[in-house]
Design goal:
Elements (H helix, E strand, L loop, with lengths): L4 H16 L15 H17 L17 H12 L2 H14 L4 H22 L6 E4 L14 H6 L5 H6 L3 E9 L2 E8 L5 H16 L1
Antiparallel strand pairs: 1-3, 2-3
Helix pairs in contact: 2-4, 2-5
Length: 208
């Protein structure tokens, strides 16, 4: 997603702070991260659907006294026990895992996940840390966003590292319109020590 001028100005400020700390800033390209959002939600929803299928009101979760049949009891237990977002993801995951759609959606998402991980590995051959915004927008005000699609889109910059299985951290990066705007740092696999040292140094520099 395109960033606004205030966000771009903060990114330039972060780059300057890194250079003042002795780091070198170079631009990199991760084109496959464009597909991270649908890939993540297909995989996560499918896994949620499979794992939450055990919550039937008998073996797991609260037993519902309502319903005269096992089917009614399970339906009532899940209706009472799962919130709207959980139900939404279960429906998406069940569809992705259903006959005729497994390879088309879930299988393809897993293959894209592998390609994204390889893309990160290639990038880390040339850089130690990747930095960028945590989200395309500053933090939402309490109760401001109720549209699930808008909420999903706010994860677009954090999902690639999750899919690639590499460590990432978010630190305060400044403010836009009086609301916090996060700075994300990403390190290669097993690079948690390097990541924490970089985050500590950069957070200190930005707070001065």
């Amino acid at each position: 997603r395109e960033l606004g001028p205030e966000a771009l100005a903060l990114i330039d400020h972060w780059a300057s702070a890194i250079e003042e700390l002795g780091g070198e800033v170079v631009e990199i390209s991760l084109p496959l991260t464009e597909y991270a959002l649908p890939t993540y939600y297909l995989i996560a929803s499918a896994e949620a659907s499979a794992n939450l299928a055990r919550f039937d009101g008998v073996r797991y979760t609260t037993v519902s006294a309502e319903g005269t049949t096992a089917k009614e009891m399970i339906a009532t237990s899940r209706t009472l026990g799962f919130g709207r977002e959980v139900k939404r993801r279960i429906m998406l995951g069940t569809f992705a895992l259903s006959a005729g759609y497994y390879d088309r959606y879930y299988g393809k998402a897993q293959r894209v996940r592998t390609l994204i991980a390889r893309e990160f590995e290639k990038a880390f051959e040339n850089v130690d840390i990747i930095f960028g915004p945590t989200s395309p927008t500053p933090a939402f005000r309490l109760g401001e966003k109720k549209d699930p699609i808008a909420m999903y889109l706010s994860d677009v910059f954090t999902l690639p590292s999750a899919l690639a299985g590499v460590p990432a951290i978010s630190i305060p990066g400044g403010e836009i319109g009086g609301l916090p705007f996060g700075l994300q740092l990403i390190a290669p696999r097993l690079g948690e020590g390097k990541l924490l040292r970089a985050a500590y140094a950069l957070e200190g520099a930005l707070s001065r």
